[in-house]
Amino acid sequence: MKIYSIPFCPFCYRVKLALHEKKIPKDLIEIEEIDLKNPPKDFIEINPNLTVPTLQIKGNDGFAESMIIVEYLNNLNTNTPNLYGNSNEEIAKNKVLIERISSEIIPALLGCFYANGSEVKFRKSLQKLPMVFEKLEELLEKINAPFFGGSSLNAVDICFAPFICYYLVANEFNSKIILPNSNTKAFNYFKNIQNHSYINELILSNEKFKNDTKEELIIDTEGTKYIKSSSRNLIKDIEEEVKILNERISLKNKGNKAILWKTNKNEKGPYIETTVQFKHYDEAIHAIQVICDLQETSDHHSHFVLENFNQIKVEVCTHQPTWGVTAMDIAFAETLSDSLK
User: Fold this and answer.
1) Residues 64, 88: one domain?
2) Domain count, the chain
């Protein structure tokens, strides 16, 4: 038999932890790390969805889904403790815990990884953390041991531990990603996972895992990096710069309708502007969210007005120390056009 896996995947780590806890020999089940961009033929035949982990039993016979594979592995070696429990009641309760952790705890805990460059989404994910820790505290209320499985990992711990590892590494790199309060069972549980010898060996001591996790946490997208790295010096020939800007935007849109910019002026000085039209109200609301996210993430601001719920007028310029248009304004305009197209 064979497990198809990829490096640093939390779902694959579940299966690897189960193999270790069940003491399943390597000559019985091989682990093959694959490249999902160039997957093996057998893997494709077993799992056309190309998700990992996938268990190959023989030939093109097998199945995917990490916790289903864990349950299968649990039944391979009956000489080791049952990962789900020793009675029907215990098995059922542990499966309920797995479901609650998978649906209520893990997605909220890892919300910071799903911000996709949005400072607003990142902050919202941080605001949910105290509630997540309260839910975990509730689940741990009757547990008077290091793990849900007692002194060793069970299926609940195996389900949860890889994601806690991601979170612990995230906490190392960003202090805004807080840990549970130190006087709670949730905090102790995190620490017990962190100090588990095999989890350390498999996951937490791997520097590449840490670096890859750090990369996933970086809020700055290429667009926000472009804005932040642009000059704050005033542009002398704004018309020419806007012409070049529109050429770049048009080229990227390859003949499709593009969001282009023009120059304008008021009593205070020049600025650049665009008007974006929408067919539906929800498109306008989405555009407002995009503009707000870009402003928060790039720390660069614009003035925008929603008109009749079917178009937004956006004005960009620099107010201080002197009114005008800078390369940073041009970069903001280009990034906004790319984001709203």
Assistant:
1) no
2) 3
User: Do residues 109 and 151 share a domain?
Assistant: yes
Q: What is the pLDDT of residues 142-165, one digit of tens each?
A: 999 999 999 999 999 999 999 999
Report yes or no: 192 and 146 within 8 Å, Cβ to Cβ: yes
Write out the H or E segment, with its range, that includes residue 262. strand 262-265
What CA–CA distance (Å, rounded) separates 108 from 316? 35
- pTM for the complete prediction? 0.74
- Evaluate whether 326 touches 269 at the Cβ level (below 8 Å): no
User: Burial of 69 by CB count in 10 Å (0-12 exposed, 13-18 middle, 19+ buried)?
Assistant: buried
Whether 13 contacts 203, CB under 8 Å: yes
Q: How far apart are CA 234 and CA 232, in angstroms?
A: 6
The partner residues of 324 in beta bridges, in order of sequence, read: 318
User: What is the residue range of 156's domain?
Assistant: 84-219
> Do 126 and 68 reside in the same domain of the chain?
no
Of 22, 54, 80, which one is at a domain's C-terminal end?
Answer: 80
d(CA 186, CA 203): 20
d(CA 79, CA 141): 30
E strand map for the chain? 2-5, 30-33, 54-58, 61-64, 262-265, 270-277, 303-307, 311-316
